[in-house]
């Protein structure tokens, strides 16, 4: 009689249990779909809300992706196309990253999942961040649009990144990925040189992808994944 009762209690415990965020880490996927819900309850990495420290990486990846007539961004011009891509997190080439979202466009407070394909066939990483700012404004002679997210506990990196497109009064359209970070997990610290190569590769791939978006012909609409 005791064993069934124990199994029943164990079943209730498992059904109501929540993983401890102290043990959470990046998901390594060999098959199946990424689970965003495992990340939505996680807090930010401790310290991610603070300014960067001495020794943290400060990156600024930028590329001019087009030109428009001076003045307000054109309705179907490069600036608007890239701005629309950024807020649906169509930032990286699909062969490298698949975004996992609850909605598009993303809003402040949304959890943004990254399904990152490795060079090993069939093996991918999954991790997430949370949006802390979204903007679209004209200040100091520049139009700017984009968002900032901050990494969650278990993300390989601790820090935050801003994805934005800018247009100056002369009509030049610029894509910028600006961030600060340091290794978050023990594995990321142990493999810091390799993780850094992956980080740089991802940012450079994003610039190339957003340049393609800027130079592409206007589309009739956007399909929600």
What does this structure look like?
With 225 residues, the protein is α+β, with helices and mostly antiparallel strands. The protein has a single domain, classed as START domain (Alpha-D-Glucose-1,6-Bisphosphate, Chain A, domain 4), CATH 3.30.530. It contains five helices and eight strands. Helix 3 (78-87) crosses helix 5 (192-215).
Task: Summarize the model shown.
With 225 residues, the chain is an alpha+beta fold. The protein has a single domain, classed as START domain (Alpha-D-Glucose-1,6-Bisphosphate, Chain A, domain 4), CATH 3.30.530.20.
Notable features of this structure?
225 residues, alpha+beta, Alpha-D-Glucose-1,6-Bisphosphate, Chain A, domain 4, 5 helices, 8 strands, disordered N terminus
Mean pLDDT: 86
Continuous helix count: 5
Write down the overall geometry.
Answer: globular
Spell out the CATH superfamily. Answer: START domain
- As a whole number of angstroms, the C-alpha radius of gyration is 20 Å
Helix content estimate: 25-40%
């Amino acid at each position: 009689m005791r064993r069934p009762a124990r199994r029943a209690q164990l079943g209730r415990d498992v059904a109501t249990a929540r993983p401890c965020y102290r043990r959470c880490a990046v998901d390594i996927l060999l098959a199946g779909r990424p689970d965003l819900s495992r990340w939505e309850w996680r807090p930010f990495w401790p310290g991610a809300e603070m300014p960067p420290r001495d020794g943290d990486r400060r990156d600024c990846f930028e590329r001019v992706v087009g030109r428009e007539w001076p003045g307000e961004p054109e309705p179907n011009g490069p600036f608007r196309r890239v701005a629309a891509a950024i807020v649906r997190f169509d930032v990286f080439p699909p062969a490298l990253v698949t975004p996992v979202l609850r909605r598009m466009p993303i809003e402040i407070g949304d959890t943004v999942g990254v399904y990152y394909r490795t060079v090993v066939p069939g093996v991918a990483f999954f991790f997430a961040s949370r949006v802390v700012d979204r903007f679209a404004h004209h200040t100091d002679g520049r139009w700017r649009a984009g968002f900032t997210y901050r990494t969650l506990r278990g993300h390989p990196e601790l820090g935050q990144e801003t994805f934005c497109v800018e247009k100056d009064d002369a009509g030049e359209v610029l894509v910028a990925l600006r961030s600060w970070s340091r290794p978050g997990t023990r594995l990321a610290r142990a493999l810091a040189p390799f993780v850094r190569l992956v980080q740089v590769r991802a940012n450079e791939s994003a610039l190339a992808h957003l340049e393609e978006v800027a130079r592409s012909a206007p589309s009739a609409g956007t399909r929600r994944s």
